[in-house]
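Supplementary material to the annual report.
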Amino acid sequence: MNILVILKQVPDLVEELEINDDGTDLDRTWMRYIPSEYDEHALEQAILLKEEHGGTVTALCLRIGEVDDTLFTAAARGADRLVRIEGDFEGISSRDAAAVYADHIRRGNYDLVLTGVQAHDDLNGPVGARLAAQLEIPYVGVVSGMHLDPETGVIHLHKEYPGGLLTVIRTELPAVVGIQSAVKPPRYVPIAKIRQASKSAEIGEETAEPQSLTPGYTVRRVFKPEGGGRAEIIDGAPEDIAARLVSIFSEHGLVR
Amino acid sequence: MSISIFVIAEHLEGTLADMTFEMLGKARQLADERGGTVTAVLAGYNVAQLAEQLGAADALILIEDELLAEFAPQPYQDVISGLIRERAPGLVMVGSTSMGLDLAAALATTLNVPMLSSCIDLSVEDDAYVVTSQLYGGKIMMETAVTAGTAIAQILPGAFRAEDGQRAGTPTLEEIPPGLHPENFRMRFENFIKPEAGDIDITQAPILVSVGRGIQTQENIALAEELAEALGGSVSSSRPIVDQDWLPVTRQVGKSGMSVKPRLYLALGISGAPEHVEGMKNADLIVAVNTDPDAPIFSVAHYGVVADIFDVMPALEERLGERVS
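Predicted assembly:
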């Protein structure tokens, strides 16, 4: 059982996002990248599958910002193989990224590809769905549980719907799965273990030229939601804030 | 330009999803303004009786097959991509839902047409569909325009009003054969797993004290429980809290969780990503406390407090206690 996990670097939303001068993209000069949270769940799910069924887990990153720490962290969590693809990928769309991943996968020998169900910057939709369509293999997303039958090469995927409802979809391998959440929260690894991995683990390096097809649309404007929203902001010391909130609750008949 | 919009209808266990009506309502409005047609596409099995609820559409294309009874990506993609290729509508609206997230990007790839996700607004100009997408956890908006050929827009739940698309009347019905090739499918729907009932039904709670990542630790949830008790409410949460196993999934608000409409929704340390907002934006009164003044939750909240929840929670609890005593 060979599993590939795609770890995508996305802007850290804790940092202020800046827009470029002509207002058509983010200004990425000082951007801080972190792995997409959904992808961290995909990695955890892959390691859980490996622990149960054996096999290998490969973690793959396009070089966007600093990715070596992301890869070494994956190794510390249990990934066996690390791959970094070098190229001009900053701001790459999920469509064009899928083509790069597809090329890597065609040359590999993977039974299962796990990736996050989406990333917060996917203007062109989830990369997993695009990747599977390019490879012409099954894709199921919004998955938060699974049961693998290695004998038959079949995986039963738990797909989420509103209100806690799940459907089970039986899928033959190879397949791409978009993970909403792993069955357990991503494991914590101490810094010391990541440091150790950075000394012992090797990152396989590949290069790729992203295709530059026309996207079929024009970006007219990138902007922050206007006016800072509609909330009336309550300032003051905690006691003043509390007093004001209680008086608002009272006006709405929520407290006696 | 005269518009032509396809709306991919969604249904679950025999009921049309609100998403369908939200998309239909917007499509209807655009067609009324600019001239053109709205076509609902309904794929399923024994779903013909749903047609009478789709009066907001001019036409309905019905595709029925046992393999389409419940959603599985491959068969749905097969019939819908064939249909879009043949009819070449200007715009295809798909929900940003469990079904739509599997479908839209795959259709766009197979058909090699542009696809824009996280759409929160849509308009039509002389020669273009203009799509506004809400990205980066709700912090950045992108306005894009598509001019030629077919494009796919993936619509965020709650972006448009369901009431606008709920019109009785049966549109002109066209039934087309599914023409499925089951031998090509390497997946199938197996069964449903129904949620277990939780200790508390948050959809019925009049007051929700809802915690997000800002609560930091499992132990701190007790602080929210105390505050909820002082307010006579219950504790709910955003997704990350459930993913950490700090609260059961029955307490989760948002996509794949519950949609709630309490009299008060007190959001503590919740940033307000679109996935969360779709489940709570209809609450009567929304109060948000967050340290990040740019948190998108402040654009849906009625009142906002830019502060540390660990300062506000005890002060609020104390104040509430004073009133009782």
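Chain A touches chain B through 87 residues (CB under 8 Å).
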